[in-house]
């Protein structure tokens, strides 16, 4: 809701941006991952392809996918030993995966408001979103966001 209010304020008065921090972006993902490591969650970050400038809304959506995925691991995973964040910059799409190796939770616990909000955010950017348990152990978020060709 805070982001929505900020967006509405920007549309009403561009001068509102003065003195505000820029929204988070994938350029800050290493710091985000380090915060989760400091909280006790071993996180591996894998980036493939060539990172590039993304449209602001798309960049924020991608950052929020990683943030929510890691938050869910920290809050909800049962005995996770690690989480893996994969960011793949392809020519026409950005793929994001957040996976953990915790014990699988009951299905009714897995899809809360945070995941529904991510699904909506990703859909607004023309992407696809999947979340669910892995066959043996763990949980994974899989997101694909379309990019304009370079």
Automatic annotation (TrEMBL):
Official protein name in the record: histidine kinase
Please name the source species.
Raineyella fluvialis
Annotated GO biological processes are: phosphorelay signal transduction system
Catalyses which reaction(s): ATP + protein L-histidine = ADP + protein N-phospho-L-histidine
Sorted UniProt keywords: Kinase, Transferase, Two-component regulatory system
Classification via InterPro entries? HATPase_C_sf (IPR036890), HATPase_dom (IPR003594), Sensor_HK_TwoCompSys (IPR050482)
Enzyme class, first EC level, given as a word: transferase
Q: Does the keyword Kinase apply?
A: yes
